[in-house]
C-alpha cells in the first residue's frame, strides 16, 4: 500500500484530477456559470440559461460523437499522452481567455466555454485510459478512488481561492487562476505518466478501428434486451443528473438570490454529501444489488426536484442540495456497479468505452430542456420540474431490466 501511494505515476495521475477539478468547480459548476448568465448575457429574460445550455450541450455532443475515434487513437496510435496535452492546453488557453470577457460578449463567451469544455471532457477520455498502465487490476479500484478523492480536494482548494478573489472584488481573476491551477498541477502527469512508446497505427486507421470496435460493442449490447434497456435508462437519468449539476448554481443565484460566497458553500455541501452518499451505500450496493440502490437514488432525485419548485428560502435549498449530493454519490457508484455485471471477462475497456459514450451523450438534451423551458416561461421553477421527467422515465425503464443482483456467494462455484 505504501509503495502504491508513493508511486510517482499514480501520484501524478491523481494530481491531474486535482488540477482539472478547478475547472469543473469554478468554471463549469459554481462561479462562472452565474457570471456568464447574469453579467455577460443578462438573465432577466432567462436568455442566459439558454446560451449556457447551448454551450454545454454542444461541447458534450462533440465529445460524445468523437469519443469512439478518440478511444481508437488512444488504443491504436499510441499517442494518448500527446492528445492529453493538446486537450489540456485547449482548456487552459480558452479558460484564461475568459479574462477578456465583457458585458454583451455573448457569442464570444459561448465559443470560449464550448472550447474549454471540449478540452476538459475530451482530455478525460485519455486521462482515464492511463489507469490500466499505472495500476494492476487488483489495485485499480482504490487508485481510481484516490483520484476521485484528490479531485474533490482540488475543487475545495480552487473554490477557496475563488472565494478570496470574490471578496477582494476581483472575481474575473478567478478565470486565469483556474487556468494556472490546471496547468501547474497537471505538469507532473506529463513528466511521469508512461510515455507514448512504439510505433502505433496511423491516426486515421486508429480512429477507424476505435470507432468500429465501439460500434460493434454497442450493437452487441443493443441486441440484448436487458442491456439495451439499461443503456436507455442510464442515458435518461444521467442526463437529468448532469442538468441539475450544470444549472444548480444558476438557479440558486437567479431565483433565490444566492451571492457568490453562498454558492461556494452550497457546492461544498454537495461535495461532502456526495462522498457521504457513496460511502454509506457502498455495502448496500453489494448486499441489496445496484438496481435497488439506483432506483432508490432516482426516487430521491425526483423528490428533490419537486421540492425545489416550492422553495423560496435559501436554508431550504441547502436541504435540497444535501439530498442531491446524497443521490449523486449513490447513483454514480451504483450505476457503475450495475453496468459491470454486463461485461464479459476481458472486455472491460471496450464496454467502458460504450459506458463513457452514453455518459457524455447524456449531457446534451437536459440542458436544452432546462434552458428552453426557462426562457419560454420566464421562470426557472418549471424548468427544474421538467428535469424530473428524465428521472421518472429512467426509473420506469430500469424496472424492466433483469440484473443488478446482490453480490452473494453462489453455490457450486468452488
Structure overview:
This protein is mainly alpha-helical and 414 residues long. The protein folds into 2 domains: 8-215, Growth Hormone, Chain: A (Up-down Bundle), CATH 1.20.1250; 224-407, MFS general substrate transporter like domains (Growth Hormone, Chain: A, Up-down Bundle). Helix content is 80%, strand content 0%. It has 17 helices and no strands. Helix 3 (47-77) packs antiparallel against helix 16 (365-377) and helix 4 (80-97) runs antiparallel to helix 8 (174-192). Residues 409-414 have low confidence and may be disordered.
Please give a quick description of this structure.
Helix content is 80%, strand content 0%. The chain has 414 residues and is an all-alpha fold.
